[in-house]
Design brief:
This protein is about 25% helix and about 40% strand. It is of the alpha+beta class. The strands form 5 sheets. Strands 6-7-8-9-10-13-14-15-16-17-18-21 form a 12-stranded antiparallel beta barrel. Strands 3-4-5 form a 3-stranded antiparallel β-sheet, with no helix packed on it. The protein starts with a helix and ends with a strand.
């Protein structure tokens, strides 16, 4: 554009110079008009100016048009960018909304599926389904069809909860009738039994429960219907007259695969509180928490049995004007190996470890430690015979039993409290009897008790150490239970501190051998794996 303007200016100057030059020559030759030359030049300059102004206006209009088009393109790009941003925000908000809906649905679905899963009979299937439900219906899990997935889980759980057994009845004509034995519903169907002569008899089948199948023949069945033609009695073979000579062949039913390991765990927590406010009869506020964990893993195969138990009890208590203190602490590990001997008796070898996990103090003085892990600790090793007539009762007689009382703390070993004064380990050899009994007293009422008796061959054989534990569980519902537990102990080698109340305070007046007794009653949470 700038070059174009320069070109136009040069052309104007040329036009001005050339006509003047010719006229000057003419004027030199003839009469010279001094006024005509400036006038023509001015006119030509005005023409050039007007042409330049026209070009400038045209260029200005072109530039204005280009600016307008550029601004319009910019506005279009801005609106497109704004729409893209709005779309992204909408997609993000919709994604968050879908996530919230999915998480809330998963929470409800998991809670609704937990109870039906617990009704399944087989432990391994129940555990696997519980893990699968927790995985699929996790808060962060997402499924494009959550309702269909939940419906499928409900059908699967309902099917497994019935604990059904599927059967197929096949006659000689290869006619197959499917049948299902269900735990909570009775179904019936008809089935035709046939022989090689194609004679048939109608049999009805009905399931009473998952272990019982009821069968009966149709009403009005006449044996003559089993023959193609009528016959007389003398035409019947003699063999029919003595049916006791015939035996139905027994078909061996294959046994299900043996379950070698029996594992499980129990966890319970009981919280109790007593509070008084302006109580005329008096009383102290207190709060206590008691927990118990039991884990067992038992192996059985071909007359060999290996039982293992981990048992942990711990409780704390906070009373008014009293610091937080330990109320219960017991850690017990058992392992027993037995082999079939004869009838209800087994050869047995067992190992038991009993101790505590945390420090114990001479309350009310909480600065003097009197016990901690393996101080004391009791290790029992026994060899003998195990009598087990059924799954409820067992009695272990061990004429060769070793008892090791360990106090693995030099300071505590110097005290006479545990009979190890000056010794870290005190061995004893004697006889031991252990009796276990558990049963269902009433519906949802379970009794579990264990009695241990030990007598040393060397140190006062007439004095018997006693350890008797009893637990009574009253099941309220699936997770709530009421527990009544007691434990009575007597160890001839353990000295118990004796206290008297003097001036309103407990004062230690000596030590002696006493029967120890512990009792607990509470309602709490219990979960069984």
């Amino acid at each position: 554009m700038r070059i174009k303007k320069i070109f136009m200016v040069l052309m104007g100057l040329i036009l001005l110079v050339i006509p003047g030059y010719g006229q000057v020559n003419q004027n030199h030759q003839g009469f010279r008009d001094t006024l005509k030359i400036p006038r023509d030049s001015i006119i030509r300059m005005l023409v050039v100016k007007d042409s330049l102004l026209v070009v400038a206006k045209r260029d200005s209009a072109f530039l204005a048009q280009q600016i307008f088009l550029t601004q319009r393109s910019k506005d279009s790009l801005d609106s497109s960018l704004q729409r893209i941003r709005m779309k992204q925000q909408e997609d993000s908000l919709e994604s968050i909304r879908q996530y919230q809906l999915s998480r809330n649905f998963n929470k409800r679905a998991r809670l609704e599926l937990v109870d039906p899963v617990d009704q399944i009979y087989e432990d391994s299937v129940r555990g696997a389904l519980t893990d699968l439900v927790n995985l699929v219906f996790e808060d962060t899990a997402f499924s494009p069809y959550p309702r269909q997935l939940k419906y499928s889980f409900n059908r699967l759980v309902h099917h497994l909860a019935n604990d059904s057994i599927y059967l197929q009845f096949v006659n000689l004509q290869k006619d197959t009738v499917p049948f299902v034995l269900k735990a909570n519903r009775a179904d019936s169907t008809a089935f035709f039994l046939m022989n090689v002569k194609e004679d048939s008899a109608k049999v009805f089948l009905r399931s009473q429960d998952r272990n019982t199948l009821v069968m009966w023949l149709e009403e009005g069945l006449d044996l003559r219907r089993l023959f193609r033609r009528q016959v007389t009695a003398d035409q019947i073979k003699i063999a029919w007259a003595q049916p006791d000579k015939y035996r139905i062949p027994r078909v061996k039913v294959p046994n299900p695969p043996a379950k070698l390991w029996d594992t499980g765990a129990e966890f319970s927590a009981t919280l109790s509180q007593v509070a008084y406010s302006h109580w005329a009869k008096g009383g102290n506020n207190n709060l206590s928490l008691n927990t118990e964990t039991k884990v067992h893993a038992n192996y059985s195969k071909s007359g060999v049995r290996w039982d293992n138990l981990f048992w942990f009890q711990y409780g704390i208590q906070k009373a008014e004007l009293v610091n937080l203190r330990k109320s219960q602490d017991r850690l017990e590990v058992r392992s027993a190996l037995s082999h079939k001997a004869f009838k209800k008796f087994d050869y047995s070898v067992g190992l038991t470890l009993i101790t505590q996990s945390f420090n114990g103090y001479d309350y009310p003085n909480d600065s003097v430690r009197i016990s901690h892990f393996m101080a004391p600790g009791i290790i029992d090793i026994n060899i003998g015979m195990l009598y087990r007539p059924n799954s409820k009762f067992s009695a272990n007689f061990s004429p060769a039993s070793g008892k090791l009382t360990a106090v693995l703390d030099t300071t505590l070993a110097q005290l006479p409290r545990y009979g190890n004064q000056g010794k870290r380990i005190r061995p004893e050899v004697g006889a031991r009897v252990t009796i276990d009994y558990k049963t269902l007293l009433f519906k949802n009422v379970n009794l579990n008790t264990q009695l241990k008796l030990f007598s040393s061959y060397v140190n006062h054989p007439e004095r018997v150490d006693v350890d008797w534990y009893m637990a009574l569980d009253l099941k309220v519902n699936k997770y709530m239970t009421t527990s009544i537990k007691t434990q009575l102990m007597y160890d001839d080698d353990v000295l118990i501190p004796l206290y008297e109340v003097q001036d309103g305070k407990k004062v230690k007046v000596g030590e002696g051998k006493r029967v120890q007794f512990w009792e607990f009653i509470g309602v709490g949470f219990k979960y069984i794996l």
